[in-house]
TrEMBL record:
<feature type="transmembrane region" description="Helical">
    <location>
        <begin position="63"/>
        <end position="80"/>
    </location>
</feature>
<dbReference type="InterPro" id="IPR052734">
    <property type="entry name" value="Nod_factor_acetyltransferase"/>
</dbReference>
<feature type="transmembrane region" description="Helical">
    <location>
        <begin position="295"/>
        <end position="314"/>
    </location>
</feature>
<keyword id="KW-0812">Transmembrane</keyword>
<feature type="domain" description="Acyltransferase 3">
    <location>
        <begin position="8"/>
        <end position="313"/>
    </location>
</feature>
<feature type="transmembrane region" description="Helical">
    <location>
        <begin position="100"/>
        <end position="122"/>
    </location>
</feature>
<dbReference type="Pfam" id="PF01757">
    <property type="entry name" value="Acyl_transf_3"/>
</dbReference>
<protein>
    <recommendedName>
        <fullName>Acyltransferase 3 domain-containing protein</fullName>
    </recommendedName>
</protein>
<keyword id="KW-1133">Transmembrane helix</keyword>
<feature type="transmembrane region" description="Helical">
    <location>
        <begin position="193"/>
        <end position="212"/>
    </location>
</feature>
<feature type="transmembrane region" description="Helical">
    <location>
        <begin position="165"/>
        <end position="186"/>
    </location>
</feature>
<feature type="transmembrane region" description="Helical">
    <location>
        <begin position="134"/>
        <end position="153"/>
    </location>
</feature>
<keyword id="KW-0472">Membrane</keyword>
<feature type="transmembrane region" description="Helical">
    <location>
        <begin position="232"/>
        <end position="253"/>
    </location>
</feature>
<feature type="transmembrane region" description="Helical">
    <location>
        <begin position="34"/>
        <end position="51"/>
    </location>
</feature>
<dbReference type="GO" id="GO:0016747">
    <property type="term" value="F:acyltransferase activity, transferring groups other than amino-acyl groups"/>
</dbReference>
<dbReference type="InterPro" id="IPR002656">
    <property type="entry name" value="Acyl_transf_3_dom"/>
</dbReference>
C-alpha cells in the first residue's frame, strides 16, 4: 500500500471520526454510541502514524501554538455569545480553565494536552525500555487505569465533581497510552483493512454490539474525557472493532471512483480536523443564540465554517503557524496539507 494512499484513507477515517465528534456535541439521538469508539480511534490512528524520531520542541509548537490561539478564539466567541459575562475575573477564570484543561475545561480542549503527553511518554518509553518491558508496562497501566476508575470515579458522568479533576487529564493517560501503542504495534496489520472480508466481519461485529446494547439491554458506555472506562475486555474489543471498521470503510472509499467527491470531502475534513475540533462547539453556541436548529444544522455549521476558515488559513504561512503550528519551511513542502492533524 503506497504511502500516499495510506495517508488518504487515514485522513478519510479522521474525517468520519471528526463528524462523529460534532454529532456527539449536538442533540443527535445516537450520540452515546459514538463515544464508544471515536476518541480511542483517534489515539489508535495517532499510534499508526508514530515515527521514531520525535522532537519535543517541534511537537510542543505543533500542539500548543494552535492551542493558545484557539483558546483566545474560544474565549472571544464565548463572550460574543454571552456579552454580559465579559469581565476581567471571567477572562482570568476562562484562561485558567484552558491551562488546567482536562475535565475542568468544557468541550474538546482536553484532547490536545492528553495526546501530546501520550505521544511524548510513548516515545520515551520506547526509547528507554525494551519492547517486552514497554508492553508489560502498558498492560499494567491499562489494568491500573480501570482499577482507578472503578475505585474513584462516579459511574454517572453528571456525578463527577471537582474532586475528580486532574490537570491535563493525567489519569486518562493510563488508557490512551495503551490505545496509542495498539496503533503503533498494529502498523503491519494495515494491509488487512483493504480486504472486503475485514470490512464485512468488522461491520457485522459493530452492528451486533449495537443490537446487544439496544435490543438486549446489555449496557456499555465509554467516555474517555470523563474517565468513564470500566470494562477491562469491552474497552478493547468495542473500540478496536469500530476502528477497524472505519479504517476499512475509508480504504474502500478510496477505491470507489463514483464516490470520489465524498471521499475527497472526508479527506479534507480529516486533514483539517484540528480546526474543526476547536471551533465546532463555540461557533454553534454563538449561532444557537440567533436561532434554533437541530443536529443536522449543528453538524453543518460545525463542519463547513471551520473548513472554510481552514482553506483561508492554508493560504498564509503566518496563519498556518498560529492556527496549525506549521513552520514556514514545512508548510512550503509537498506534504503541506498533512503537517498537523487531529490525530498526529
Amino acid at each position: 500500500m503506497g504511502s500516499s494512499k495510506r495517508v488518504d484513507y487515514l485522513d478519510i477515517a479522521k474525517g468520519i471520526l471528526i463528524i462523529t465528534v460534532i454529532l456527539c456535541h449536538s442533540d443527535f439521538p445516537f450520540a452515546q454510541y459514538m463515544y464508544w469508539f471515536h476518541m480511542p480511534a483517534f489515539f489508535i490512528i495517532s499510534g499508526l502514524l508514530y515515527k521514531n524520531k520525535l522532537s519535543i520542541k517541534s511537537q510542543a509548537t505543533k500542539f500548543f501554538i494552535p492551542y493558545i490561539a484557539f483558546s483566545i478564539v474560544d474565549m472571544a466567541l464565548t463572550f460574543m455569545t454571552n456579552p454580559q459575562d465579559f469581565s476581567l475575573p471571567n477572562i482570568v477564570y476562562y484562561s485558567y480553565e484552558h491551562i488546567y484543561a482536562g475535565k475542568m475545561m468544557p468541550g474538546v480542549f482536553w484532547f490536545i494536552p492528553c495526546l501530546f503527553l501520550t505521544k511524548v511518554l510513548f516515545h520515551y518509553g520506547k526509547k528507554l525500555l525494551s519492547n517486552q518491558a514497554l508492553i508489560m508496562l502498558l498492560i499494567g497501566l491499562y489494568v491500573a487505569g480501570h482499577a482507578f476508575v472503578l475505585a474513584t470515579v462516579p459511574e454517572n458522568v453528571v456525578d463527577i465533581t471537582t474532586a475528580n479533576y486532574i490537570p491535563w487529564n493525567l489519569d486518562v493517560l493510563m488508557i490512551t497510552l495503551p490505545y496509542y501503542a495498539i496503533g503503533y504495534y498494529a502498523k503491519d496489520l494495515l494491509k488487512f483493512v483493504n480486504n472486503k472480508i475485514t470490512l464485512i466481519i468488522s461491520g457485522v461485529l459493530a452492528i451486533s454490539y449495537l443490537k446487544l446494547n439496544t435490543d438486549l439491554q446489555i449496557y456499555y458506555y465509554m467516555n474517555i474525557k470523563y474517565s468513564e472506562f470500566r470494562y477491562y475486555f469491552l474497552d478493547l474489543l468495542v473500540p478496536i472493532t469500530f476502528t477497524i471498521f472505519i479504517l476499512s470503510i475509508s480504504y474502500h472509499l478510496t477505491q470507489l471512483k463514483h464516490l470520489g467527491s465524498i471521499a475527497s470531502f472526508l479527506k479534507l475534513a480529516g486533514a483539517n480536523s484540528l480546526i474543526i475540533m476547536y471551533l465546532h462547539i463555540p461557533l454553534n453556541h454563538y449561532f444557537e443564540t440567533l436561532f434554533n436548529y437541530n443536529y443536522v444544522i449543528f453538524t453543518l455549521i460545525g463542519l463547513l465554517i471551520p473548513l472554510g476558515l481552514a482553506i483561508l488559513i492554508n493560504k498564509n504561512e503566518l496563519c498556518e503557524f498560529i492556527f496549525k503550528g506549521t513552520s514556514p519551511s514545512s508548510s512550503s513542502s509537498s506534504s503541506k496539507s498533512h503537517s498537523v492533524r487531529f490525530a498526529h
